[in-house]
Amino acid sequence: MRIIARLDVKNEFVIKGIHLEGLRKVGDPNHLAKAYYDAAIDEIIFIDAVASLYNRNNLFSIIREASKEVFVPITIGGGIRTIGDIDEALDSGADKVAINTEAVRNPKFIEEAAKRYGSQCIVASIQAKRIATGWEAYVETGREKTGLSVLDWAVCLQNLGAGEILLTSVDKEGTRSGFDMPLIEAVNDLVKIPVVASGGYGHPKHCNDLLKRTEPSGLCFASVLHYKTTSVGELRKTIDQARSKCEI
């Protein structure tokens, strides 16, 4: 299972909030990325948290600097809306792009991008919120409803050619209250492509509880790393121990 650091960036600072709101500055993105790389993180995801305000991603210069010292896969997301954006992201040093809003507006964009760059390069980002009938997909940093069922949308994105799903629980994001296990289990068991779960980790018990039910391809960590309440090494040990318990 991949251990992934998630860096949400606003105006050249890594920020963190709860439910993707109430954002606070926590550090320099390049300094944090290098620290996590030195600690043996498996991957890093950079998300432009305010891309919707500018109608484009503004992280390309940050990615260029990061790729000089960070040699694990880098994903960039937020405001990726054209083939030109993907070209610039990859030219800047990113290995993958995460796409959410434009996929909802124009699903064929996922298909076009996957054919041009390969499915392994295209990450379908889903921001999920609980509703009475399950979960609804949101865009614009969890602010705008789409009317799409998360489960139906995940299957559609897979069929369009996405190589991976970045599944963010808006309800759990930043709370450290545990993963949205029913959501992760439902999506992970439904699709055949890798699922990376984001939002909610705060205690080793949360990994134990999740892995009893399902095992996603990767887990994203943000506030627990940014605020140094745990380390990459401790997370790896936690996940390994949780997996061992599930195998007994």
From TrEMBL:
Ranges that cross the membrane:
none
Q: In which pathway does it act?
A: Amino-acid biosynthesis; L-histidine biosynthesis; L-histidine from 5-phospho-alpha-D-ribose 1-diphosphate: step 5/9
Under which EC number(s) is this enzyme classified? 4.3.2.10
InterPro entries cross-referenced by the UniProt entry = Aldolase_TIM, His_biosynth, HisF, IGPS_HisA/HisF, RibuloseP-bd_barrel
Can you state which reaction this protein catalyses? 5-[(5-phospho-1-deoxy-D-ribulos-1-ylimino)methylamino]-1-(5-phospho-beta-D-ribosyl)imidazole-4-carboxamide + L-glutamine = D-erythro-1-(imidazol-4-yl)glycerol 3-phosphate + 5-amino-1-(5-phospho-beta-D-ribosyl)imidazole-4-carboxamide + L-glutamate + H(+)
Q: Which Pfam families match?
A: His_biosynth (PF00977)
The protein's UniProt keywords, in alphabetical order, are:
Amino-acid biosynthesis, Histidine biosynthesis, Lyase
Q: What class of enzyme is it?
A: lyase
Question: What family is reported?
Answer: Belongs to the HisA/HisF family.
User: How does this polypeptide assemble, per the annotation?
Assistant: Heterodimer of HisH and HisF.
Describe the task this protein carries out.
IGPS catalyzes the conversion of PRFAR and glutamine to IGP, AICAR and glutamate. The HisF subunit catalyzes the cyclization activity that produces IGP and AICAR from PRFAR using the ammonia provided by the HisH subunit.
| The protein's name | imidazole glycerol-phosphate synthase
